[in-house]
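Q: Sequence in, structure out?
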Amino acid sequence: MASAKNFTTHFLEDWCKTGQKNEAMITMEILKLGFCSSAGNGNVLRRRCLRVKASTSSNQSVEIMKGKKVNGIHVGGVQYLSQRSSELLSENRTEESYNHAYLLGRFVENRFVYRQTFVIRSYEIGADKTASMETIMNLLQETALNHVASSGVAGNGFGATREMSLRKLIWVVTRIHLQVEKYSSWGDVVEIDTWVDAAGKNGMRRDWIIRDYNTQKIITRATSTWVIMNRETRRLCKIPDEVREEVQPFYLNRVSIAREDADSEKIEKLNDETAEIIRSGLAPRWNDMDANQHVNNVKYIGWILESVPINVLEDYNLTSMTMEYRRECRQCNVLESLTSMAETMTTEDSNGVNNSSRADLESTHLLRMEADKAEIVRARSVWQSKQKHLI
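A: Exactly. Output:
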């Protein structure tokens, strides 16, 4: 005679997919498994049965770690999957689309806007314990690439459409402008929206906004201009009609930064006489190359900051940055970074004495080839004293 025993296990609320969250206990289904086994002499078959009863309770187990709730409830002050998943399921979303929303992102606003959520990781923060400008640029780039990959027009290239892949064409950025109001900290969750529009006859504009997931406040805005290059000849070319037909359905006449607020002024070209600091011998590494076989545009930020004075990096926040990309950089190239700093505003204390430590700064930058001095990137940055945020 076989004995029967009862056991209890717990399942995540979303697995049960129940609509009555306030009930103390909701019985689901009974799974009955039947199987046969032989007796010791091998002649008698005995039928045995295993009954499994699944149930869910509204009283979820919550653990506390470092003062924060975990197990899908709250992390970093943000309500996580238990709430958001119920919202998605209430919109009659499939489990596949639910996973896509958290792993890759999703389309909103009639598929004109692509939205993706990220958690700021420990390896994405800098010395001041907040996300770096490079981190922001990487997240913007990741969202843009996933936008193309999820659109249904992606080819086998790095962010290229099908028609572009057939013609050996790639996208290259010519200008990007970012305005950062607040840098996220480790563990913060950000939500990024991106969309595209035409830029003249042969360009495409891509915009982004970054929100704090918890407050939904916009903390970063960015806009960029892209053109098409032949992957083999490395020459710029016009957008073929077939490619234009692929991307036009996604065009949205909207800007993340108002035109009057965008940095559209020409960036001054620095030289040995006008630059205050010059750093030489900056060599790209193999890991700095991207899938299009040139240095990833995000890598230039680190080289630009190599010639910024250390006291500026320590005492100021980089609140705005504009970069104009002039030519490609390969692994065999050696670069120079040039920077010139200037105060844009000076405050006075109660005694009428200038306090330059609280003044905003504007810097001009140039990355160039060390061998022939050919321009790679011109840039302009705006810096705001960290001390101001404490007043």
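Residues 1-45, 49-93 have pLDDT under 50 and may be disordered.
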